[in-house]
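Chapter summary example.
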Amino acid sequence: MTLRRSSALVLLAALLISAPAFAQSESDKATARALGQQGEAALESSNWKQAEDYFRRADSLFHAPTLTLGLARAQAHEGKFVEAWENYHRIIVDNLTTPPVFAKALEDARTELPSVEGQRARLTITVTGSDAPQVNVNDVPLKAAALGVARFVDPGHLVITVGGDGLKTETRALDLGPGKEDAVTIALTKAAPAVAATDVPVPAGSVATPTGPSGGGSILKPVGIGALGVGAAGLVLGAVTGGLALSKHGDLKTACPTGACDTAASQSTLSSYHTLGTLSTVGFVLGGVGLASGITLLVMAPKSDSRPASTASIRPYLGLGSLGATGTF
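The structure predicted for these 329 residues follows.
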């Protein structure tokens, strides 16, 4: 049995001793004894975090210097030198020498305290721009009273986060070695106000409509006008080729009075007549589809509030020596 294990058994046996200043229920003492045994076992196996947990809970149920000593030792191994120092110091302040195991715990605390005292780092955090900043060091809130003065911290990597209502959150990171000292000043500024969609005034009765490439109005209108143009071109094609087909038909009556076109010239005229007739038919069909589509799109397009709604129309015309279309939009 190791010396530490022997000391642990003596330490836990002390929990059986009743002292008026530490009077607890028998159930709490029994539970603290069991937790203390588990804490000692965790220390023996170098499971410092588990040992800290056992000793912390045991000491909260039955406060004894022996349990506080185990807690301080576990924290010192974890690098929690600030808490370890406080627990060693707590034993010294209590200054309990009865029973003998308490006196031994007091002696050990005085011997071990210097080993952690020089390991503590010191950090001064100063915040400007706010009278009530919210400060966190490694996600642990820091009271405002601790700002601007040097305070003990455990060495290692530190992340400082500072913010507040209506303020931009600032973050600083630094590494402090054992026994080192540093200072950080953080200036807070107001956060940019968030602009919600409801903050933009929208005139009553206005409705957002999809915009075309030019960025103004509905895309239906320019497409509809384009369709009308295609329709007008189709009508012009149909009318022109139809007129030429009629001319060819007259030539065929002269060249083929009996209805039979046997000559090469008459065959060529006949072929041209059929081609022009086909083009005329295609032109009129294209014109009809284009006009119908264009008018439909213009009717569907939203009307501007600044001018009265108008009805789109287009009319082809055929005059003496001229052929085309007119329309209103």
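To summarize the output: The first helix runs from residue 3 to 13.
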